[in-house]
## 1
Amino acid sequence: MAEKPIRFGIIGCADIARKLSRAITLAPNAELSAVASRSLDKASAFAKANNFPPSAKIYGSYEDLLDDPEIDAVYVPLPTSLHVRWACLVAQKKKHILLEKPVGLNVTELDKIVEACEANGVQIMDGTMWVHNPRTHKMKEFLNDKERFGELKNFANLRFWLGIGHRPREKSKNWMHSCFTFAADEDFLKNDIRVKSDLDALGALGDAGWYGIRSILWAVDYELPKTVTALPGAVLNEAGVILSCGAALHWEDGKVATFHCSFLAHLTMDITAIGTAGTLHLNDFIIPFGEKEASFTTVSKSGFTDLVTGWVPVPSQHTVTTDLPQEACMVSEFARLVGNIKATGAKPDPKWPSISRKTQLILDAVTTSIAQGSKPVEI
Amino acid sequence: MAEKPIRFGIIGCADIARKLSRAITLAPNAELSAVASRSLDKASAFAKANNFPPSAKIYGSYEDLLDDPEIDAVYVPLPTSLHVRWACLVAQKKKHILLEKPVGLNVTELDKIVEACEANGVQIMDGTMWVHNPRTHKMKEFLNDKERFGELKNFANLRFWLGIGHRPREKSKNWMHSCFTFAADEDFLKNDIRVKSDLDALGALGDAGWYGIRSILWAVDYELPKTVTALPGAVLNEAGVILSCGAALHWEDGKVATFHCSFLAHLTMDITAIGTAGTLHLNDFIIPFGEKEASFTTVSKSGFTDLVTGWVPVPSQHTVTTDLPQEACMVSEFARLVGNIKATGAKPDPKWPSISRKTQLILDAVTTSIAQGSKPVEI
């Protein structure tokens, strides 16, 4: 069934919208139809700089774009503090929403947005690109493979370290670590919206920690942990915005995961996932080193040589090529869902708001735990 | 000054002693002179199986070996619970000590051993092999390079997250993560000395966590952290021996490090060290994948392409070759120090007991924090 491409409008000319404009152009089932800024000149310059087609409409207000009946979906790259207001309005205008992350300042805000989407029958998806990379699907195949990665056996040992639980009877245990850091410059740390308490108030946790949290949830099939405990050493700026922090997540069946996020350390984006039978590593999970191919490393059932002087087997690298960059894969998947809804009256896919919500829920727990001096927060 | 090789005796035929026997054979300034077991047959079989020279002496008791005036140094691979007794006796017999890790059940035990060594003028070094790999020296050059890795600037922000400290004024922050896990089989988890409360009572923390702790101290030039906080989710066996745990270390100047160790997850041995200007990664820090060469990855001052679709620069891999395997480098360095003492009456090098002690101190703090339900423990 050949369908018309989904017509995208963009409200706000954030830097990230440049990348998304190209992604919409590249996605075969999407087209760049309009851009709005509070300034018509700015919108016009943005459209020109980002190769919008001549047919694209330029708006000097977000409302005008939302009133355009020829727009199917809206990409919202506005500061987090504006999400609840504008995303709800997008939904009320019956337009599908591709919403930049973090989706809200807290889960209550997201719930309002999701409620508006459900009431209006529109799809919502957050702008987490890496989960759409074909590499990510290949990595998940590894994590789901009991032979190569191992099992997530239950053993109710979680509270044993507190002295109030059962002693473990089974031997398996999964562990995962994720981090995303980058070294922001003086200008960023002074002026960027991500260090402002009235804009992207979740700071490094919302901007960088979002990915670590998402990667952990992704690895465990989005099973929520039982508790979230902030790690010591969180750094906040004068306005109380998080510049660096981390947390440990743990599940009742014994799984443990930690993540670290920071604006204050060199660019690093790692996943290490350890099962009972195998280990997965990669160091570019959010933005692959290059667009056209991306790699990860796995090793299964490895042990040592007789005298413990080497590994058998050693890890092997897997490279996955992609025609479309991951952000265009994201746009394409989102447009596919929107196309289905338009063509068949299908219901929006609840998976996407559900995983946004779980990510935000953990984010909220981390901020609570930091505020409470690293007390464990129950989910 | 050509000197005679240092004559090594080994007390106990532990599995690890096979590796060390070969290392002593390979080290040009060391020779295998004797082995002792509580059983003469066992010692004899060990010597035969491990290519001891015909001149090597076989003893049916540890004491007899220690009384041999033709032994300069003794390698002690006995279970941790026996260290304080035997290492003190080795020192009293004026023999230098290469002591398997963990060095003691706690720092008090180590202090007794070190005291005995000092009183008798003998060198002590623990059996941590990886720090002697030429790769490790190359990695340290990277970590010490302000251009490539960045600075460890002070900013007294540590307690800010508790709401009682200063707000940070400087932007740098170092972060590090290390882990060592391996999936022990049923037999190990039932019978190995490392799961027995009367033998290697520190379990996975002593056997695997030792390395993570050492790697963190190594990276920060052995500066002790201010606090150590166990991560949630430690697993203990029926006898109370740790099978899996982790901790977060933090320093008053804002550095943070975490480590994880386990007998319950697939073989993994990572270091990730993140400075303000660069990142170091390796996945085989304790036992390199192969003997003859070992690699690590670094990337400095990396950022993104214009549209944030790739990295510039991407990480690069560094490979360091070595003629001697790392355990032979360790033996050789230890024998060099012993040779110096013998030839010139030099004092034993205090660096080695000092870094053993710091490692043990953190180990003790982790066990205390676990026992106290993850309360931060001051060092």
## 2
Amino acid sequence: MHRIYIQGTIYPEIQVGMREIFLDDKDIPSLRIYDTGDASHAKPIRSTWPKPAEGLTQRQAAQKGIITPEMEYAAIREGMPPETVLKELAEGRAVLPANKNHPECEPMIIGSKFLVKINANIGNSALGSSIEEEVEKMAYAVKLGADTVMDLSTGKNIHETREAILRKCPVPIGTVPIYQTLERGDLCWENFRDTLIEQAEQGVDYFTIHAGFLRDYIPLALKRTTGIVSRGGSLIACWMQTHKQENFLYTHFKEICEILREYDIAISLGDGLRPGCIADSNDEAQFAELKTLGELTKIAWDMGVQVIIEGPGHVPLNKIKENMDLQLELCHGAPFYTLGPLVTDIAPGYDHITSGIGAAVIGMLGTAMLCYVTPKEHLGLPNKQDVRTGVITYKLAAHAADIAKGNPQALLRDKALSRARFDFRWEDQFALSLDPETAESFHDGASHSEFCSMCGPDFCAMRNTRRIGE
Amino acid sequence: MHRIYIQGTIYPEIQVGMREIFLDDKDIPSLRIYDTGDASHAKPIRSTWPKPAEGLTQRQAAQKGIITPEMEYAAIREGMPPETVLKELAEGRAVLPANKNHPECEPMIIGSKFLVKINANIGNSALGSSIEEEVEKMAYAVKLGADTVMDLSTGKNIHETREAILRKCPVPIGTVPIYQTLERGDLCWENFRDTLIEQAEQGVDYFTIHAGFLRDYIPLALKRTTGIVSRGGSLIACWMQTHKQENFLYTHFKEICEILREYDIAISLGDGLRPGCIADSNDEAQFAELKTLGELTKIAWDMGVQVIIEGPGHVPLNKIKENMDLQLELCHGAPFYTLGPLVTDIAPGYDHITSGIGAAVIGMLGTAMLCYVTPKEHLGLPNKQDVRTGVITYKLAAHAADIAKGNPQALLRDKALSRARFDFRWEDQFALSLDPETAESFHDGASHSEFCSMCGPDFCAMRNTRRIGE
């Protein structure tokens, strides 16, 4: 009997959305345990762990050949040896985001050699949502399978919202610190630095920082059909235009890295110039910034900081590969983390799908983490149901990428589900699916019937096949 | 002022879901007419048209160099010269499905040189649905943009349901005649032939016929994880197994083509062996049948019959290209018509998305028509809302493929929508979108506000860009 973790966490005391497959003696995957814990049970598991690499970031430890407990934990989740995790970390092709002040975080690894990860964005805006709602969205996203969560709050109670989320969250939390900087008053280096330290102390695991958007790139953005569509990017552009100075995130980059290194926070180099429409995709503005992100990668790496590169936005299917190829070349193999890309502009209300298409393709090509898009993109703040739709759509896109990359764990799950389907084991089919609740609610046959209402009993092809084979 | 049709039909007396873009003097696409007619207004427009090619199929006319009114009409809809339509038809790379007895059908062309088309499946099963419901689903699918509709009824009143649909339907109707054959009694050539003639007389525009599934292929199918998943394929397999004879659709293929030629019905060579799970994709069974479909293509072509080749099912992203390449090679360039493909098995309830991903990719690679999949796939009979979700998902997948192929009409629509978005012309944005009603219902800002609740007023990047540019 062989046991395989297919989704969720691995420690029984946590068990958030855990699923397992058991293989029988003939290696037929047919049994499973399906258990949904509750993300709000997150406990500070890392608080009691040994610290073999005290004072070092995971990158620095890896470079010294030290396998930390975090690396070991992440390796188990991937079904890979810890040496692989160490190697990918040491060479910068992966990150293990785990702020020393976020002991609730279960270690996980993001890199193209590993399972493709997905991020769910939550957070309030000036126009709505409460702390409770945001914590609920986080727990819901994690239970459904989000690998990381970004709190993008820009409204009221940003600190308190984040604190409530962090203390209950078993996955890495990311933020875009420039949003909260505006709460402290004017946008400037000092206010930004203080915000970084405040959030670092709380335990944020990775920061999106738009340090690669240089003043020279503003004219390139103004030529576009939809200009700048990154919130952080547009704030920095306004600041540079008003002060007629270079981006302070660029000029203070080493000081930023010093702070991040202290807590072992990964830097996610933001793409302030990601294209907001098909017409702007793969343009001079986008690739100029990408080149600068590559330069900053080297600086951060030299200082021991783990680096992620942010990318895409709106990119047609035929131009996705160019993005991936250029990112690998310009950013020296650092993991790519993309929003979608959305492969057309014309489907507001369905942009989880337009972007899920691009996400699956860029994931197959080597992108390490996919930032979800909900049906509300371009239209409004997502609610809990939108979070569900976004997470499941991205889990399936990431899984499609894993399948295309030949990941054995991923392939096994498809095979197990399809065997259950062919055997009319409906309950096993649902348990192995990404969203058992929805699948079951759509099934209108009896739970033991050998057909469903789509075809009825006489036209069920699988039922007919079974008869032929008998 | 330049006027461009972007969706729907072109004759003012019909106007089903018609949309147009107007370009101003500076070629800025900003105005539009948005008009939703009602599919149930379909009139027999072709009944008064001249018949320059009396007695000939569209293929035969094209080979003689005759541009029929149908070719001319289809060309206008594509924004292409009728000579291109003629050439693609003559060489078999496209079909123009228009049964002489379906005068309500507005001519359209399916081929890789043209806009990627989508098909919506409707039809009852033994477990439910009425004639009225099915007519309503048809009208709804056409209004939302379905380019063809297949009536896959297997339940009661198949003849009456189809008659009601055909007489109100402005798009080509396809069927799988073997389903109704069972109504006449035993499955056999005589009952099948009589069913073909009955449906041909009514005006069905294309038939799916599983003539390429040979007896030798049964053992290949029985080795699979999920066997045969095509309803028609499984019926033929049962017949071959019971009678220990070769597929009668294969042995009577020329007689079938004679009937089809008389009415100018296109044959859609069915893929009885399409893979039903990732593990069975691109296997021996699938490609053995594809080779036979290629042989049948030549026979049908020689008899003047228009041919479509059916394909995919469940295929991972990394194996899609092999399908397209082999189809082009084995089937001599005949248009490919695929179900999805679904790029993973693990998302029942979301298979419109798992298949929309594969559909966009295979469409980009040259597939001419995409058969939609609804969220109910594998679980139950789709209702009206499922039809909506399926059609819009496939419209966006087909459009993403058109964009990737560089179709100028398609690119213009994205640009027009994105300009409207950047200008905060919310109503234009919705009008240009695939599902204006849904987009508008998701927008929670005021219709003239320069932001939405996703970011709120201070964090709207596009608003900030406009300020920088001022």
